[in-house]
Amino acid sequence: MSLGVAGAGLPKFERLFIKLVLVPIVRILFTWNLTLFFINRERGIIKKLIQQLSKNDLQKRVEIKRAFAIEDHSRDYSVNMTLEHLRITGTKVTEVIERLSDEKEYEEEITIQAVKPKENGEDEVEKFFTFMDYYTEYIKSHPKNYSKMTKKHPWFVNFNNSDWACFMFMHTFIHRRQIEAIIKELK
Length: 187
What we know:
It is a single chain. This protein is mainly alpha-helical. The chain has a single domain, classed as dinb family like domain (Four Helix Bundle (Hemerythrin (Met), subunit A), Up-down Bundle), CATH 1.20.120. A two-stranded antiparallel ribbon has the order 1-2.
C-alpha cells in the first residue's frame, strides 16, 4: 500500500518553513563536529528503540499519522524500510559531500524517488549500522572545509558540503521520529 506519489513533497507551508527558517538556523548553529555528535546521538536512540523488536516487527509495514517533514508516500513504511531509506540517502549524501569537497560538480540529478526503500530486507538493521560506522569515520577524517561548490536538494535550496552533512543529521532525526511512530503503531 502506498499513500500518495513518491517525491510529491511536503505541504507548501511546511516546505517553506524548512527552507526559509530551519535550514538557515542549522547553517548558523551547526559545525561538522556538532553535526556528527548529533547524528551519532540519533543513531544511539534508534538502536535502543529497535533492540527489542522481532524480525517480523522490523519488517511489518504500518501506516502512521501525518508527521512533520515526512511526505505522505512514506507514511506506510516498516522500521526496516525506514532504515533502508536512511542508508540509501546517506550513501548518496556521502557521494555528494565527497564531490563538493573536491570543488567538483555533482552532476547526477538527486531525486526523492531514487532514495526510496526497495527491499524491506531482514538484514537491514545490520546494513544500516554498518553504513553509520562508515559515515562516522568518513566525517571524522574529512577535512572540515566549506565548499564553494553546491548541489540543490530536490525540495529546498543549494547546499554546500557542510550543509549536506547537516542535512544528514536533520534527516536522521526526522526518520527516527518516524521509527518511534511505527513502533507505537505496532503495539
